[in-house]
Amino acid sequence: HSIHGRAPAIATGLATSRRDLSVWVVTGDGDALSIGGNHLIHALRRNVNLKILLFNNRIYGLTKGQYSPTSEVGKITKSTPMGSLDAPFNPVSLAIGAEATFVARTVDSDRKHLTSVLRQAADHPGTALVEIYQNCNIFNDGAFEALKDKERAQEAVIRLEHGQPIRFGADNSKGVVRDPATGDLTVVPVTPDNEHQILIHDAHTTSPTTAFALSRLADPDTLHHTPIGVLRSTRRPVYDTLMNEQLDTAVEQHGKGDLSQLLAGNDTWTVETS
To answer: Which domains does the chain have, with CATH numbers?
Structure first.
Protein backbone atom coordinates (compact mmCIF):
# COMPACT_ATOMS: atom_id res chain seq x y z
CA HIS A 1 0.00 0.00 0.00
CA SER A 2 1.13 3.57 -0.66
CA ILE A 3 -0.26 6.87 -1.91
CA HIS A 4 -2.57 6.73 -4.91
CA GLY A 5 -0.85 5.29 -7.99
CA ARG A 6 2.62 5.09 -6.44
CA ALA A 7 2.54 1.47 -5.28
CA PRO A 8 4.88 0.20 -8.07
CA ALA A 9 7.55 2.68 -6.95
CA ILE A 10 7.30 1.62 -3.29
CA ALA A 11 7.22 -2.05 -4.35
CA THR A 12 10.36 -1.57 -6.47
CA GLY A 13 12.28 -0.34 -3.44
CA LEU A 14 11.00 -3.21 -1.35
CA ALA A 15 11.68 -5.89 -3.97
CA THR A 16 15.23 -4.69 -4.58
CA SER A 17 16.13 -4.44 -0.88
CA ARG A 18 14.31 -7.56 0.36
CA ARG A 19 14.85 -10.29 -2.22
CA ASP A 20 13.54 -12.86 0.26
CA LEU A 21 10.00 -11.47 -0.06
CA SER A 22 7.29 -12.11 -2.64
CA VAL A 23 6.10 -8.59 -3.45
CA TRP A 24 2.59 -7.98 -4.85
CA VAL A 25 0.89 -4.76 -5.92
CA VAL A 26 -2.90 -4.50 -5.98
CA THR A 27 -4.04 -1.59 -8.12
CA GLY A 28 -6.92 -0.49 -10.33
CA ASP A 29 -7.56 0.98 -13.75
CA GLY A 30 -7.81 4.46 -12.23
CA ASP A 31 -4.62 4.80 -10.19
CA ALA A 32 -2.45 2.46 -12.29
CA LEU A 33 -3.18 4.08 -15.64
CA SER A 34 -3.67 7.74 -14.73
CA ILE A 35 -1.71 9.30 -11.88
CA GLY A 36 0.43 6.15 -11.53
CA GLY A 37 0.96 5.43 -15.22
CA ASN A 38 4.61 6.45 -15.23
CA HIS A 39 5.42 4.25 -12.22
CA LEU A 40 3.66 1.31 -13.85
CA ILE A 41 5.44 1.42 -17.21
CA HIS A 42 8.90 1.79 -15.65
CA ALA A 43 8.37 -1.13 -13.26
CA LEU A 44 7.41 -3.21 -16.33
CA ARG A 45 10.35 -1.90 -18.36
CA ARG A 46 12.87 -2.61 -15.59
CA ASN A 47 11.51 -6.13 -14.99
CA VAL A 48 11.59 -5.80 -11.21
CA ASN A 49 10.68 -9.01 -9.39
CA LEU A 50 7.15 -8.06 -8.39
CA LYS A 51 3.58 -9.02 -9.32
CA ILE A 52 1.01 -6.38 -10.29
CA LEU A 53 -2.71 -7.20 -10.12
CA LEU A 54 -4.62 -4.56 -12.08
CA PHE A 55 -8.32 -4.79 -11.21
CA ASN A 56 -10.17 -3.18 -14.11
CA ASN A 57 -13.80 -2.18 -13.57
CA ARG A 58 -13.70 0.61 -16.20
CA ILE A 59 -14.80 3.25 -13.68
CA TYR A 60 -13.52 5.19 -10.67
CA GLY A 61 -15.45 3.07 -8.16
CA LEU A 62 -13.60 4.21 -5.02
CA THR A 63 -14.33 7.90 -5.65
CA LYS A 64 -17.91 7.13 -6.65
CA GLY A 65 -18.40 6.93 -10.36
CA GLN A 66 -16.16 9.13 -12.50
CA TYR A 67 -14.92 7.79 -15.84
CA SER A 68 -11.51 6.10 -15.82
CA PRO A 69 -8.70 5.58 -18.38
CA THR A 70 -10.38 2.32 -19.46
CA SER A 71 -13.93 3.67 -19.79
CA GLU A 72 -15.30 3.40 -23.31
CA VAL A 73 -15.78 6.47 -25.55
CA GLY A 74 -19.18 8.04 -24.87
CA LYS A 75 -19.34 6.75 -21.27
CA ILE A 76 -21.76 8.90 -19.28
CA THR A 77 -20.58 9.36 -15.70
CA LYS A 78 -20.60 12.02 -12.98
CA SER A 79 -17.52 13.62 -14.53
CA THR A 80 -18.63 13.13 -18.17
CA PRO A 81 -22.37 13.94 -18.22
CA MET A 82 -22.32 14.29 -22.02
CA GLY A 83 -20.13 11.24 -22.59
CA SER A 84 -16.39 10.62 -22.38
CA LEU A 85 -14.27 11.93 -25.25
CA ASP A 86 -11.15 9.95 -24.26
CA ALA A 87 -10.01 6.86 -26.16
CA PRO A 88 -9.51 4.15 -23.52
CA PHE A 89 -6.28 2.39 -22.66
CA ASN A 90 -5.96 -1.33 -23.28
CA PRO A 91 -3.91 -2.30 -20.17
CA VAL A 92 -2.60 -5.52 -21.72
CA SER A 93 -1.48 -3.71 -24.89
CA LEU A 94 0.19 -1.06 -22.75
CA ALA A 95 2.08 -3.67 -20.73
CA ILE A 96 3.28 -5.53 -23.82
CA GLY A 97 4.37 -2.23 -25.37
CA ALA A 98 6.42 -1.53 -22.22
CA GLU A 99 8.23 -4.87 -22.78
CA ALA A 100 6.70 -6.59 -19.76
CA THR A 101 7.92 -10.18 -19.54
CA PHE A 102 4.65 -11.61 -18.19
CA VAL A 103 1.25 -10.29 -19.25
CA ALA A 104 -2.08 -12.00 -18.63
CA ARG A 105 -5.80 -11.29 -18.40
CA THR A 106 -8.49 -13.07 -16.42
CA VAL A 107 -11.98 -12.53 -14.98
CA ASP A 108 -12.74 -12.20 -11.27
CA SER A 109 -15.71 -14.59 -11.28
CA ASP A 110 -13.86 -17.40 -13.08
CA ARG A 111 -12.16 -18.79 -9.98
CA LYS A 112 -10.42 -21.71 -11.68
CA HIS A 113 -8.94 -19.58 -14.46
CA LEU A 114 -8.01 -16.77 -12.07
CA THR A 115 -6.20 -19.19 -9.76
CA SER A 116 -4.26 -20.73 -12.66
CA VAL A 117 -3.13 -17.35 -13.97
CA LEU A 118 -2.08 -16.10 -10.51
CA ARG A 119 -0.01 -19.24 -9.90
CA GLN A 120 1.83 -18.69 -13.18
CA ALA A 121 2.41 -15.04 -12.30
CA ALA A 122 3.76 -16.03 -8.87
CA ASP A 123 6.25 -18.43 -10.45
CA HIS A 124 7.50 -15.89 -13.00
CA PRO A 125 10.93 -14.28 -12.36
CA GLY A 126 10.52 -10.54 -12.98
CA THR A 127 7.51 -8.28 -13.30
CA ALA A 128 4.18 -9.98 -13.93
CA LEU A 129 1.10 -7.93 -14.81
CA VAL A 130 -2.32 -9.54 -14.55
CA GLU A 131 -5.34 -7.55 -15.69
CA ILE A 132 -8.43 -8.78 -13.83
CA TYR A 133 -11.83 -7.80 -15.17
CA GLN A 134 -13.85 -6.92 -12.08
CA ASN A 135 -17.49 -5.89 -12.01
CA CYS A 136 -18.47 -2.75 -10.07
CA ASN A 137 -22.10 -3.43 -9.29
CA ILE A 138 -22.62 0.05 -7.81
CA PHE A 139 -21.23 2.42 -10.44
CA ASN A 140 -20.70 0.30 -13.57
CA ASP A 141 -22.76 -2.85 -13.24
CA GLY A 142 -22.71 -5.27 -16.17
CA ALA A 143 -19.55 -3.87 -17.78
CA PHE A 144 -18.29 -7.41 -18.50
CA GLU A 145 -21.61 -9.19 -18.96
CA ALA A 146 -20.58 -10.35 -22.45
CA LEU A 147 -17.76 -12.33 -20.84
CA LYS A 148 -19.68 -13.60 -17.83
CA ASP A 149 -22.98 -14.74 -19.32
CA LYS A 150 -22.44 -18.39 -20.29
CA GLU A 151 -24.09 -18.25 -23.71
CA ARG A 152 -22.57 -14.93 -24.77
CA ALA A 153 -19.16 -15.80 -23.33
CA GLN A 154 -18.95 -18.89 -25.52
CA GLU A 155 -18.81 -16.62 -28.56
CA ALA A 156 -16.82 -13.79 -26.96
CA VAL A 157 -14.09 -15.32 -24.79
CA ILE A 158 -10.90 -16.62 -26.40
CA ARG A 159 -9.11 -18.87 -23.91
CA LEU A 160 -5.39 -18.90 -24.64
CA GLU A 161 -3.31 -21.98 -23.89
CA HIS A 162 0.37 -22.17 -24.78
CA GLY A 163 1.03 -24.61 -27.62
CA GLN A 164 -2.65 -24.97 -28.53
CA PRO A 165 -4.58 -23.70 -31.58
CA ILE A 166 -6.45 -20.48 -30.80
CA ARG A 167 -10.04 -21.65 -31.24
CA PHE A 168 -13.27 -20.77 -29.45
CA GLY A 169 -17.02 -20.62 -29.88
CA ALA A 170 -19.58 -23.40 -29.96
CA ASP A 171 -17.72 -26.63 -30.83
CA ASN A 172 -14.56 -24.54 -31.40
CA SER A 173 -16.12 -23.32 -34.62
CA LYS A 174 -14.12 -20.08 -34.70
CA GLY A 175 -10.39 -19.51 -34.89
CA VAL A 176 -7.74 -16.83 -35.10
CA VAL A 177 -5.60 -16.51 -38.23
CA ARG A 178 -3.03 -14.03 -39.47
CA ASP A 179 -4.06 -11.94 -42.46
CA PRO A 180 -1.28 -12.47 -45.04
CA ALA A 181 -1.86 -9.02 -46.54
CA THR A 182 -1.74 -6.89 -43.37
CA GLY A 183 -0.17 -9.20 -40.76
CA ASP A 184 -3.11 -8.48 -38.44
CA LEU A 185 -4.96 -11.21 -36.59
CA THR A 186 -8.56 -11.89 -37.54
CA VAL A 187 -11.34 -14.20 -36.40
CA VAL A 188 -12.70 -16.63 -38.99
CA PRO A 189 -15.09 -19.60 -39.07
CA VAL A 190 -12.99 -22.78 -39.02
CA THR A 191 -13.30 -24.92 -42.15
CA PRO A 192 -11.37 -27.94 -43.44
CA ASP A 193 -9.67 -25.60 -45.90
CA ASN A 194 -8.34 -23.11 -43.34
CA GLU A 195 -7.88 -25.33 -40.27
CA HIS A 196 -4.12 -25.55 -40.88
CA GLN A 197 -3.92 -21.74 -40.80
CA ILE A 198 -5.29 -21.41 -37.25
CA LEU A 199 -2.66 -19.70 -35.09
CA ILE A 200 -0.86 -21.81 -32.46
CA HIS A 201 -0.46 -19.77 -29.28
CA ASP A 202 3.17 -19.27 -28.28
CA ALA A 203 3.36 -17.30 -25.02
CA HIS A 204 7.12 -17.82 -24.75
CA THR A 205 8.29 -16.31 -28.03
CA THR A 206 10.75 -13.45 -27.59
CA SER A 207 9.01 -11.08 -30.01
CA PRO A 208 6.00 -9.25 -28.53
CA THR A 209 4.40 -8.78 -31.97
CA THR A 210 1.83 -11.58 -31.88
CA ALA A 211 0.97 -11.05 -28.20
CA PHE A 212 0.27 -7.39 -28.96
CA ALA A 213 -1.88 -8.32 -31.95
CA LEU A 214 -3.87 -10.73 -29.75
CA SER A 215 -4.43 -7.98 -27.20
CA ARG A 216 -6.01 -5.81 -29.91
CA LEU A 217 -8.73 -8.32 -30.79
CA ALA A 218 -11.01 -7.16 -27.97
CA ASP A 219 -13.34 -4.36 -29.02
CA PRO A 220 -13.58 -1.82 -26.15
CA ASP A 221 -17.35 -1.37 -26.62
CA THR A 222 -18.67 -4.91 -27.12
CA LEU A 223 -15.73 -6.92 -25.66
CA HIS A 224 -16.32 -9.45 -28.41
CA HIS A 225 -13.32 -11.68 -29.13
CA THR A 226 -11.56 -11.00 -25.83
CA PRO A 227 -8.47 -13.16 -25.17
CA ILE A 228 -7.95 -14.31 -21.58
CA GLY A 229 -5.02 -16.25 -20.18
CA VAL A 230 -1.28 -15.67 -20.47
CA LEU A 231 -0.54 -13.60 -23.56
CA ARG A 232 3.20 -13.34 -22.94
CA SER A 233 5.66 -15.12 -20.63
CA THR A 234 9.31 -14.63 -21.56
CA ARG A 235 12.64 -14.47 -19.73
CA ARG A 236 15.13 -11.65 -19.48
CA PRO A 237 17.41 -10.43 -16.67
CA VAL A 238 15.62 -9.38 -13.48
CA TYR A 239 16.39 -5.83 -12.32
CA ASP A 240 16.93 -6.53 -8.62
CA THR A 241 19.25 -9.45 -9.39
CA LEU A 242 21.38 -7.23 -11.65
CA MET A 243 21.38 -4.42 -9.08
CA ASN A 244 22.53 -6.68 -6.26
CA GLU A 245 25.28 -8.12 -8.47
CA GLN A 246 26.55 -4.55 -8.98
CA LEU A 247 26.45 -3.91 -5.24
CA ASP A 248 28.34 -7.14 -4.50
CA THR A 249 30.99 -6.19 -7.07
CA ALA A 250 31.32 -2.70 -5.56
CA VAL A 251 31.82 -4.14 -2.07
CA GLU A 252 34.45 -6.58 -3.35
CA GLN A 253 36.38 -3.82 -5.12
CA HIS A 254 35.99 -0.91 -2.71
CA GLY A 255 34.77 -2.33 0.60
CA LYS A 256 31.55 -1.56 2.39
CA GLY A 257 30.43 2.06 2.23
CA ASP A 258 30.03 4.37 5.22
CA LEU A 259 26.65 6.11 5.09
CA SER A 260 27.51 8.69 7.77
CA GLN A 261 30.67 9.66 5.90
CA LEU A 262 28.70 9.98 2.68
CA LEU A 263 26.12 12.26 4.32
CA ALA A 264 28.72 14.41 6.08
CA GLY A 265 31.55 14.26 3.58
CA ASN A 266 33.52 17.02 1.87
CA ASP A 267 30.60 18.56 -0.04
CA THR A 268 28.97 20.13 3.02
CA TRP A 269 28.49 23.68 4.21
CA THR A 270 28.31 25.23 7.65
CA VAL A 271 25.64 27.91 7.96
CA GLU A 272 26.35 30.41 10.71
CA THR A 273 23.58 32.47 12.20
CA SER A 274 23.99 35.59 14.30
So the answer is: 7-164+201-254 (3.40.50), 165-199 (no CATH)
